[in-house]
């Protein structure tokens, strides 16, 4: 536990970090990669080049400083980070390296304002944070390793099938190359895929939601092909263009804290935009596979029928499974389209009578602005925040 003086010193830096945090984190990453280039393969190079990773870290460091008197407030954030860490293979031995470069960066960026006393306070604060994350990650690693079919680190999986779901999204059915079994997972979780990116001369990990129900003999991811040559499209294009049936790719075990609450009997409302449909498919298929009688509303928005993944599946399931009602929005619909219900963007107020259920749990996934808009709409319709669960793809959070 930090003493009062150390807490005061760290807390006093919060305003500085909010104002200059990105300069600090940019310096930190450049410094760390210069001295420890082997760590580049752990981090998303696209997020590094776009600045998204630097911004996310700056916000996290500022939040930690602001809540240093009661870091338990950040428990959900730390759980999210811990899950990301185990999906990337971050281990306890990495923390001293990161801490060394973070403290050096604070001193180098703040200059004379970074007194020895302040650096000592931040060293103690970082050690406290590292201990919390290491302990939580140890539990997650152990759980991943000891479950039936589980593992930690990277494991080779064979591409058993490759199915085009839309003009942008393709599913990959993956089975263990070692002939072993597939672990169970919570609907909503993701796996990391690791591939070599020639343009960057780096191994690069990317997280993709598991898009089918657990308890199969395969893992399925459904990957959107991002714009070719874009910072965020390096791995997705490699998967679409170069990975074929019979190829082997490296996977980390399932992880993630955005999951279906299976201990509840409340109705379920699944709200997604674009490729955000992928974890919703896992949740929906699990509910149907397990014979759940929970009412389900499946609300999805996309640009058009051409990019609408799983449209035939969703239509069939809505007919075969009475507790499920679908509501599909197309921004651009044609007279020949059969699988949509409304045109334009999702308007929850418009469909509130049948689709907004006061006692339901709401799960949201899609672009950040999309989720922020839907959360605002749900709150305006009287849904409490503890009933709203959201997943942001990429780095950072929803709030």
Summarize the structure in words.
By secondary structure, the protein is of the alpha/beta class. 41% of the residues lie in helices and 19% in strands. Helix 6 runs antiparallel to helix 7. The longest helix has 31 residues, at 116-146. The relative contact order is 0.10.
- The number of helical runs is 12
Q: For the record, what CATH class of the largest domain applies?
A: Mainly Alpha
Regions with little confidence, pLDDT below 50 for 5+ residues: none
Question: Helix coverage percent of residues?
Answer: 40-55%
Percent range for β-strand residues: 15-25%
Q: How confident is the prediction overall: mean pLDDT?
A: 93
Major β-sheet strand ordering: 4-3-6-1-2-5
Largest sheet: 6 strands, antiparallel
The Rg value, from CA coordinates, equals 22 Å
Shape: globular
Number of strands: 12
Under CATH, the topology of the largest domain is which? Answer: Globin-like
Distance between the termini: 28 Å
What is the H-and-E element order? Answer: HHHHHHHEEEEEHEEHEHEEHEHE
Q: Decide which structural class fits the backbone.
A: alpha/beta
CATH level-four homologous superfamily name of the largest domain: Globins
Number of domain modules: 3
CATH architecture term of the largest domain: Orthogonal Bundle
Which labels suit this protein?
single chain, 399 residues, alpha/beta, Globin-like, Elongation Factor Tu (Ef-tu), domain 3, 12 strands
Structural topology:
Elements: H1 4-12, H2 14-35, H3 45-50, H4 52-66, H5 75-88, H6 94-110, H7 116-146, E1 155-164, E2 169-176, E3 190-197, E4 202-209, E5 219-224, H8 234-242, E6 248-251, E7 268-273, H9 277-289, E8 296-302, H10 311-320, E9 324-330, E10 342-343, H11 352-355, E11 361-366, H12 368-380, E12 388-392
Parallel strand pairs: 7-8, 7-11, 8-9, 9-10, 11-12
Antiparallel strand pairs: 1-2, 1-6, 2-5, 3-4, 3-6
Helix pairs in contact: 1-7, 2-4, 2-6, 5-7, 6-7
């Amino acid at each position: 536990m930090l003493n009062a003086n150390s807490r005061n010193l760290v807390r006093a830096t919060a305003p500085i970090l909010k104002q200059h945090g990105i300069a600090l984190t940019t310096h930190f990453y450049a410094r760390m990669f210069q001295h420890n280039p082997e760590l580049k393969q752990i981090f998303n190079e696209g997020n590094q080049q776009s600045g998204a990773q630097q911004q996310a870290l700056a916000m996290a460091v500022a939040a930690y400083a602001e809540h240093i008197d009661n870091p338990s407030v950040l428990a959900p954030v730390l759980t999210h980070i811990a899950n990301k860490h185990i999906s990337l293979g971050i281990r306890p031995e990495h923390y001293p390296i990161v801490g060394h470069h973070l403290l050096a960066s604070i001193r180098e960026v703040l200059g004379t304002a970074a007194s020895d006393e302040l650096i000592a306070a931040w060293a103690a604060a970082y050690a406290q944070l590292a201990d919390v994350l290491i302990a939580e990650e140890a539990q997650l690693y152990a759980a991943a390793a000891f479950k039936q079919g589980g593992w930690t680190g990277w494991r080779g999986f064979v591409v058993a099938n490759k199915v085009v779901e839309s003009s942008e999204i393709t599913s990959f059915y993956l089975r263990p190359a070692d002939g072993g079994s597939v672990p169970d997972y919570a609907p909503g979780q993701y796996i990391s895929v690791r591939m070599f990116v020639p343009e960057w001369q780096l191994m690069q990990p990317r997280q993709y939601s598991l898009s089918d129900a657990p308890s199969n003999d395969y893992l399925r991811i459904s990957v959107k092909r991002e714009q070719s040559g874009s910072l965020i499209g390096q791995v997705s294009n490699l998967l679409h263009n170069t990975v074929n049936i019979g190829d082997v790719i490296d996977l980390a075990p399932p992880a993630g804290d955005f999951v279906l609450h299976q201990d509840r009997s409340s109705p379920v409302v699944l709200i997604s935009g674009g490729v955000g449909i992928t974890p919703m498919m896992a949740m929906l298929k699990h509910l149907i596979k397990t014979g759940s009688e929970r009412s389900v509303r499946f609300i999805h928005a996309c640009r058009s029928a051409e990019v609408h993944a799983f449209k035939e599946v969703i239509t069939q399931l809505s007919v075969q499974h009475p507790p499920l009602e679908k509501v599909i929005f197309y921004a651009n619909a044609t007279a020949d389209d059969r699988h949509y219900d409304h045109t334009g963007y999702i308007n929850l107020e418009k469909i509130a009578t049948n689709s907004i259920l006061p006692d339901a749990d709401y799960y949201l996934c899609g672009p950040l602005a999309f989720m922020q808009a839907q959360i605002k709409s749900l709150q305006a319709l009287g849904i409490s925040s503890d009933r709203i669960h959201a997943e942001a793809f990429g780095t950072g959070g929803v709030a």
